[in-house]
Design goal:
279 residues, alpha+beta, Pantoate--beta-alanine Ligase, Chain: A,domain 2, Ribonucleotide Reductase Protein R1, domain 1, 2 domains, five-stranded antiparallel β-sheet, 7 strands, globular
Length: 279
Amino acid sequence: MALVITLALVIIVSDFNLRARTAFDRSRRAVRLVESRGLLKKIESGLPALKPAELMALSREPREFPVDDFTVRLEVEPLETRLNVNRLNDLIVGGPVQELFGALLKREQFEHRALPCALDWVDADDEPRASGAERLDYLGEDISPRNGPFETVDELSFVRGFRDVSAFDRIRPLLTSYGSGKIYVPAASDEMLDLFEDAYGLVARNKLEDMRRYPGVTFQLPTGSIPAAALQSIQSILTDLPTAWRAIVIFNGAHLYVRREYVIEREAESGAAMVRRVA
């Protein structure tokens, strides 16, 4: 009986490996086909030329167009609907980013040292703040604080206080490592508005709901409705137009599927765009 079970498991594993290799080979051939036609390069060179208004339109309605015997789909999402973990120490928006990030960690019941450890990871020195963690605290591990920006959001999962996988998976959709650190409310999620409520109160959240429902409405509240410091924090972190976008390009056909993910970051002053492939 044990021998039969063992043989069955061997057959199942072998079949799985064969299908995985076949899928990988098919994907690799698909990528080579798309590259041979120069389509990836054409699209990559065209992404920086997309203007903010065009990116905004694409975020509301993805475009799909035929190319030979397959279709190309372009999906766009503004990234400034999430908290940028690389702006925690920013001179302009660092305060409100910390307040909202702290509200998120408290909501998901992260340990108290999580935020100080994240701040120590990105700051330039090796002096740990109260409850934080610097290079000496990671001795014996394969990693140590970067003392600079996170390359990806996933890097945060290596930081002390963020190593609970299930808890980190819950906060990840609300985080990014790109953009100005400001929040574009019209495209923000309910979860993001919940953080504003946790940090600044229900009155602020209701006003943000109005801004999301009626784009173009400015954040103005009656004097005394919330503390002046909170009002200043909220006003400093809101933006009328995102400067960072995620673009997903999908080539799809009968025997072809290629997916590429890019980040488009546009400087607010010069308007120059930088595109990097992230997946």
